[in-house]
């Protein structure tokens, strides 16, 4: 049987040739992302800013009467609602700020939910209330700080691991490419205005895991080649490593993207943002392993000397790594 | 490396069978599962509320109010103890400020006697003190709270509150609530499959503290309207006051609390035919109620629920037997809800709903259906791709992948873990990671063959060299998953659980199990050529 080859044998693409350009574009995109988040802001869900979100489906209508809803719900005296379609045309989410004083008296929030839902049911007999999320200001602050903490802890944790398993330059490269991926994902959410909620934090953490996975595979090969080809110039060595792992990179990205694309297209609407963030993250993460994590090693002056036993202190460590992994120089 | 002793093969196969067996009950329809449960234990995966539909309610206790209640109780017991002391000890200038209680012992020579009376009141069963006792200016006794006393009180109050909520929800019928304490002052209530969360919220949020107080009939209505009361009285809200004024003044002392009830039932008022609630005190409460009504015939007494007067009828005759009726402007529903709340006891502390998430059952079912559909399509696509690219070794990877899915479900069922929507996404990711391990191995074998190694050697080197990257990649994922679990909340935790289980099972199936199969194949066929 003839097998499929995702990448032809002996592929040798000079990836590193464009490293300066790629880096410049990445920096630009990162700056743009930060700028967008700072100016346009993220469309935070009730998880992070508190408030109430009612999800409703108009079972007998082709599409939800968004403009009409904005008016009727707005006229209830609780301020202007944020109304968005999500998923199907006839599904909406209605987001409201919690009424004044709801922190002290949760009855107010309940009353608001009840008033809105009964108004919906009165105006539209075919409405089905799919869910109500109500989060107080105190809890949303906690969720936000906990989410950010989880993100920072994960980035720091895995980078420290890389530092111990490889060398400090690799740790820097890893944390940089993670920062790159996370920043760009933030940028994606700022530009699209997709709702940013707790699930997106989970997606970001997954992106971190996946992107690192990719980086580790490339780094592992770089380390192996550094010990194998002492004299090779760094850029060529990185190119060789990336090319050698290229068919794995393509194969894995494709395999992981497959279920994610299916999730984005056919998956539950509730996790659309989550799936989209992950699919985006896979692409960005794969790119960053090649164009961020690898070239940084050149700029941080990694060379074969980093893993060769020398008379100095770090020699013992290099030796240990050499033995552990049974590398043959 | 490719050498597998017989005992290892047995062990690995047993693990596979066990892991997958635990998954079976979760995959069966409910009716079949029930049948099976008669013969063997059937651990099942719990569906999170986002999938099953239901309500998640996070309640938080008001700790400052608890301290205030404790202080009030302390004042009560100190006053009673002083009055009952023999000889009686007169105290004056009682004040509560900054969480401490202080008062003067009128007769300086009795300060020591007063201390003796107080000490048993402020010591607890473990021998430590809940309050510090100090004496100022010779005769002023100050009782200030000890922080451990506050903590113990909160802890007990939360335990009681949890039981009370449990009783209240059980009174609603066949729901299967999960009620757990979270942190120091929070309680999570999760009720799957609930259609109408409003009724539930009305029920569990109510403190249901019932009190009977005498109305201050000498109060000046103008003063009351401004919220001012005479010494010894207090002004309470009274929305249904027939005089039109939404406030009423009541005497602070001389009332009784309604926490000593044995029964509370919804009923209809015999005269007006409006909904009402009948209550029955226990014997001690009944005696106190009889005494209070006996001493105050023809006076008005206020029925106070959670600090709000619901009605203020006249005491026409002493009420013996401890049965009374509470009427106010009730509906049938609210009378029913109040009797449930009263029956299950008052919450020892005010609870507020700080977070609520409800998912309708239709949306949940839709999420499951589409989530599973996506998982099936995605997995099938991977299986086809793996076979096309790696042939025989791709098939090994595919069988491993299917077993992996079974084992994740099995371990989750065994650990009684909860599957949430992000959990399904975690599933998808784990499948991807499992495939990645096989891709790494197979690519490496391909490379080694290309470098001219013989088949068996290439396989050995391939597994060995790829293992290193697989180990590092999965270690970092474990780190991320553990941190997710520690810092995450709600749905994120559901995701972290699947990820942690999936990482372990995927390394097991993708590396160990496929290696076992490959080694059998190598041993049996001694291949000299390999298409990969």
Care to describe what's here?
The complex is a heterodimer of chains A (329) and B (532). Chain A has 329 residues and is of the alpha+beta class. Residues 310-329 of chain A have low confidence and may be disordered. Chain A contains eleven helices and six strands. Chain B has 532 residues and is an alpha+beta fold. In chain B, helix 4 (63-84) crosses helix 5, helix 4 (63-84) crosses helix 6 and helix 13 (455-487) packs antiparallel against helix 14 (491-525). The longest helix of chain B has 54 residues, at 361-414. Chain B is elongated and about 105 Å long. The mean pLDDT of chain B is 85. Chains A and B meet through helix 4, strand 5, helix 5, helix 7 and helix 9 of A and helix 7, strand 18, helix 11, helix 12 and helix 13 of B. Strand 5 of chain A pairs antiparallel with strand 18 (351-359) of chain B, so a sheet runs across the interface.
The end-to-end span of chain A amounts to 36 Å
Number of beta-strand segments of chain A: 6
> Rg of chain A, please?
25 Å
User: Number of DSSP helices of chain A?
Assistant: 11
- Strand fraction band of chain B? 15-25%
Globally, the shape of chain B reads elongated
What is the terminal-to-terminal distance of chain B?
20 Å
Strand order of the largest sheet of chain B: 7-8-2-18
Q: Please state how the strands of the largest beta sheet of chain A are arranged side by side.
A: 3-4-2-5
In short:
The complex is a heterodimer of chains A (329) and B (532). Chain A has 329 residues and is an alpha+beta fold.
SSE blueprint:
The complex is a heterodimer of chains A (329) and B (532).
Chain A: H1 19-39, E1 43-44, H2 46-49, E2 51-58, H3 66-74, E3 82-85, E4 91-96, H4 107-123, E5 127-135, H5 137-165, H6 168-192, E6 195-196, H7 198-228, H8 234-244, H9 246-266, H10 272-299, H11 315-324
Parallel strand pairs in A: 1-6
Antiparallel strand pairs in A: 2-4, 2-5, 3-4
Chain B: H1 6-27, H2 30-37, E1 46-47, H3 49-52, E2 54-61, H4 63-84, E3 91-97, E4 100-105, H5 111-122, E5 131-136, E6 140-145, H6 147-171, E7 178-182, E8 186-192, H7 197-205, E9 210-214, H8 221-225, E10 233-237, E11 247-251, E12 256-257, E13 261-268, E14 275-281, H9 283-295, E15 301-305, E16 308-311, E17 323-327, H10 332-343, E18 351-359, H11 361-414, E19 418-419, H12 421-450, H13 455-487, H14 491-525
Parallel strand pairs in B: 1-19
Antiparallel strand pairs in B: 2-8, 2-18, 3-4, 4-6, 5-6, 7-8, 9-12, 9-15, 10-11, 13-14, 14-17, 15-16
